[in-house]
Amino acid sequence: MEKHDKFYGSVLNFFENAAQHTNLHRGILEQIRACNSVYRMRFPIKVGKDVKVIEAYRVQHSHHRLPTKGGIRYSNHVNQEEVMALATLMSFKCAIVDVPFGGAKGGVKVNPWEYSEYELEKITRRYTTELVKRNMIGPSIDVPAPDYGTGAREMAWIYDTYRAFNEKEIDAAGCVTGKPVNQGGIRGRTEATGRGVFYGIREACNNKADMKKLGLEPGIAGKTMVVQGLGNVGSYTASICQEEGDAIIVGVSEVEGAIYDPKGIDIHKLLEFRKETGSIINYPGAKSFPKDDRKTVLEFECDILVPAALENQITIDNADRIKAKIIGEAANGPITSEGEAILLKKGKLIIPDVFLNAGGVTVSYFEWLKNLSHIRFGRMDKRFNQNTYDNFVTLVENMTGKKVNNLEREFLTKGGDEIDIVRSGLEETMVTSYNYTREIMSRKRKVTDLRTAAFVNAIEKIGSDYMAMGIFP
Ligand code: GLU
């Protein structure tokens, strides 16, 4: 077996575990597993009076569907195998939620908090230029998005740079997703990954038989939850699970440390507190843990543990100390394959990243569709629906002789705005994908965990695309 780093090695192990449960020819499996294109670039950036050589990557894992799709990560830990692992996960993620893209990922090896906005703009524009030069970006080629260390601001720079080189391309806005709404973005993209995590966990908790096996009541309401990471994904996951799911957040960790309060932490107040003091430490009423102990948050007593930061958090070293019964992978790759084996032996329910955090790319797909159609969702039919529902209500009022009040009428006749349609499309995607993946476990008795089922789902779908192309026997 080739030697790989922990993260990429785990992704390949997960792949091989699942591949055994498919009937695909080994040649097809090799093609599905391989990273098709790996582009490593180095470019200079002037920082003050210094010149820094920046190391960056774009990996296109699979071209079975085009464009390829995946975020760009800015972090000091970026390396080739990390980007390869993330690109591989993107292909499977897209297949699982039926988003018609191949997988890709980008990485720039910088700590974004060490650079000024001006320098980050230069880095982003130069990185985009390198991709343009190699024909590795475009609405029909490869479409980046935000990931760890990047957001709407960087996406606006990427779009603007791409457009400068392609001024006649009418679909240029589809070259990148996660853009600000006034730059061709879509409402609901920022919260999308966290909201998808909520729908995914809720669906898993609604399965009575699975909850019974864990000794838990069905439903997300009242379940205690620990969240690692308060970045984009962690903060939306925690606030939506608290608000819409009535889950109780009992523990949170961030770079500066961790806090725990079995009575529950109001996530909005905590985010406010962190904004004011720059830290979650000493949040009133909670027990605080210093920076060096922050990883122990993973071992706190709770029903649901949500690692929402980076890869390789639950490994052979700490897996047997995890108390949570359900682990929802909001981050990419937080559990290594060795860590997972320990958790599964102890009967934990792992909701895997390739399904659970696919809300981001799902809403990116909606954004890309919006960009290609040049129209906001809801613009054509909102009023029409509203008028139709209004006529219905009036008809029922006339027939019954009873009147609804204004608030009731407003509620009953509301047509969908873009945000409503995006949320509903995301909910539909997460619920359907969960149930399809869960069904694989009923169909294939030897598949006994959700990750293997999700990988089988992805491998079979990508495999059938290759077969349809007639390339393989
Ligand atoms: N970076 C996100 C992920 O890991 C989103 C990718 C996208 O929207 O293309 O899934």
Explain how this protein is built.
This protein is of the alpha/beta class and 473 residues long. Among the domains are: 39-183, Rossmann fold (3-Layer(aba) Sandwich); 192-356, Rossmann fold (3-Layer(aba) Sandwich). It has helices spanning 6-19, 26-33, 80-96, 117-133, 152-165, 192-205, 208-214, 232-245, 267-277, 337-345, 353-356, 359-373, 382-400, 406-413, 418-443, 450-468; strands spanning 37-47, 50-60, 68-74, 102-108, 142-146, 224-228, 248-254, 257-260, 287-290, 304-307, 326-328, 349-351. The mean pLDDT is 97. The chain binds glutamic acid (GLU). Glutamic acid is lined by residues 69-71, 93, 145, 147, 177, 332, 357, 360-361, 364.
The CATH superfamily of the domain at 192-356 is known as: NAD(P)-binding Rossmann-like Domain
From the N-terminal CA to the C-terminal CA, the straight-line distance is 26 Å
Structural class assignment = alpha/beta
Q: H/E element string?
A: HHEEEHEHEHHHEHEEHEEEHEHHHHHH
Overall form: globular
The helix fraction, in percent, is: 40-55%
What's the CATH architecture of the domain at 192-356?
3-Layer(aba) Sandwich
Widest beta sheet: strand line-up: 9-8-7-6-10-11-12
CATH level 1 class label of the domain at 192-356: Alpha Beta
Query: What fraction of the residues are assigned to beta strands by DSSP?
Result: 15-25%
Poorly predicted runs are none
CATH topology of the domain at 192-356: Rossmann fold
Question: How large is the count of helical segments?
Answer: 16
Condensed summary:
The protein is an alpha/beta fold and 473 residues long. 46% of the residues lie in helices and 15% in strands.
